[in-house]
Amino acid sequence: MWDAPGIVGLPDDREEPRVIEFDAVHKEYPDGTVAVERFSLIVPSHRVVALVGSSGSGKTTLLRMVNRMVDPSSGTVSIDGVDVRSMDRVKLRRSIGYVLQAGGLLPHRSVADNVATVPVLEGRSRRQARADALGLLERVGLDTALADRYPAQLSGGQQQRVGVARALAADPNILLMDEPFGAVDPIVRDQLQAEMRALQADIGKTIVFVTHDIGEAFALGDEVVVLRTGAEIAQQGAPAEILANPADDFVASFVGAGTAQRTLRIRQVDGRDVVVDGDGRPTGVLER
Amino acid sequence: MNLLIEAVQWLLDPANWGEPNALGMRILEHLAFSGAVVLVAAAIGIPVGTLIGHTGRGRGAIIAITSGARALPTLGLLTIFGLWLGIGLEAPFLALLVLALPPVLAGAYAGVESVDRATVGAARAIGLTERQILTGVELPLAAPVIVGGLRSAALQVISTATLAAYISDTGLGRPLFLGLKTQQYEMMLGASILVALLALIVELCFQLVQSAAARRAEPQNGRQHRAHSGARERIEA
Ligand SMILES: Nc1ncnc2c1ncn2[C@@H]1O[C@H](COP(=O)(O)OP(=O)(O)OP(=O)(O)O)[C@@H](O)[C@H]1O
Ligand SMILES: [Mg+2]
């Protein structure tokens, strides 16, 4: 059940490489906090790599080094072999879709205008960009009637969908997603994850997905990277590998926390098969 | 009470609105002079304050300067500038500028600084240039506070611009000082009432502008209706 949604049979025009490579990246903030210590990772084209780790392990810092919101103290981040530090910050950022941890929508612009921001800056007509925005809203499962609302008039989950739509608006090859489903309840979260899988099967972006929920990392990542403090890699591999073979106690405890919710058992109640999770809480009824 | 009635009578006397007193002319002078001061204060104060708010640099200096400037007595300044520049509009202009700059500066820098840093960071992260962040995010969100600064500057300038007549022959300060000198107190009081009315009208105008700015900065508090019907129209179209 942990099988990741392998991306097969992508159309040819998406076969151009979009590899992100972290090479011995180190980040020490001016106040002396070492957020990332010699981190190396290759994010292959059209794949979802999920970075999972507890709060403060350096996940956001890693993401922000890709779009140069943070420059590494040493080491390099490169895209298709080109050091991002040789690229223009603004161009780089516009070419990458970024879903921020806290939504980050502009409060004084309507939902449609938020989604259309980068395309308009890139010279698309406002009319066209807004029309495209409506399509994107549908794509992320939002009613287009919300297009003229303002962010404060949306629920947390709706705002996060808008964030995803905005990140997709300029049709970037790379998506950075920082706990995009952090502020929603588990049911909406599962739904968003399912939609995200379907979307990715369709669009095949190179995605770095940050989460502190191992279940979410397993659900979305083709590859999962478990991080300790300082972005030290505790284990990296396909979800099934990590699940079957946790490298050490740290990973095992991380995975354990995830499996308690995910290991399902069947219990007979009144002649029906009730599905219960690891804590014995019912989650559904089995149909035969 | 009698004096008040006399003052109102003086105000209503058509003779005072034609030559030689020409109250209409005085009102225009007063407004134009005050407006010019506020415009120059805005032209200096808004860019400087905005830049300080955006970069966070020079904050300490600007707080020191503005609170220092606020402590200066305008009449004293006017005297000093008058001795230096002589009779004419320059001295009162400068003295009023010193009066108007602090609230404009403070409004601009406080307004920009109060914009949520996370919003600014998000705008930067999706690829807005610093200039686009300033004009497209920080200024519209700070606009209500910036207009508030202009508003208090304008009010202070309009009421204080009467002092201009102390050293030059302009504005509503003229009948005010003339009345004082010639002990025509109804004239003095009438002119004061005009200044107060002018201030009130300008205040009302600024209130309108400020609430328009607030509606743009926080559109969720008031444009729902229009926004929703707009959505419906487009979907039907
Ligand atoms: N601008 C900054 N200045 C100083 N220290 C920082 C800065 N940003 C992050 N840090 C520190 O760097 C470390 C890593 O932070 P980061 O935001 O990358 O963690 P995270 O894994 O994204 O955490 P979370 O799951 O809570 O979002 C933390 O100890 C944090 O306090
Ligand atoms: Mg984070």
UniProtKB/TrEMBL annotation, chain A:
Enzyme class: translocase
Alphabetical keyword list: ATP-binding, Nucleotide-binding, Transport
InterPro entries: AAA+_ATPase (IPR003593), ABC_transporter-like_ATP-bd (IPR003439), ABC_transporter-like_CS (IPR017871), P-loop_NTPase (IPR027417)
GO molecular function ontology, one term from the record: ATP hydrolysis activity
EC numbers: 7.6.2.9
Domain spans labelled ABC transporter: 20-255
Family in the record: Belongs to the ABC transporter superfamily.
Protein name as annotated: ABC-type quaternary amine transporter
Protein's organism: Agrococcus baldri
Automatic annotation (TrEMBL), chain B:
Location of region: Disordered: 217-237
Record's bilayer topology term: Multi-pass membrane protein
Keyword hit for Transmembrane helix: yes
Main localization, broad class: membrane
Transmembrane segment boundaries: 31-53, 60-87, 93-112, 141-167, 187-206
Subcellular location per the Swiss-Prot or TrEMBL entry: Cell membrane; Membrane
Keywords attached to this entry: Membrane, Transmembrane, Transmembrane helix, Transport
All copies of domain ABC transmembrane type-1, residue ranges: 27-206
Keyword Transmembrane helix: yes
Family as reported in the entry's similarity comment: Belongs to the binding-protein-dependent transport system permease family.
Name of the molecule in the record: Osmoprotectant transport system permease protein
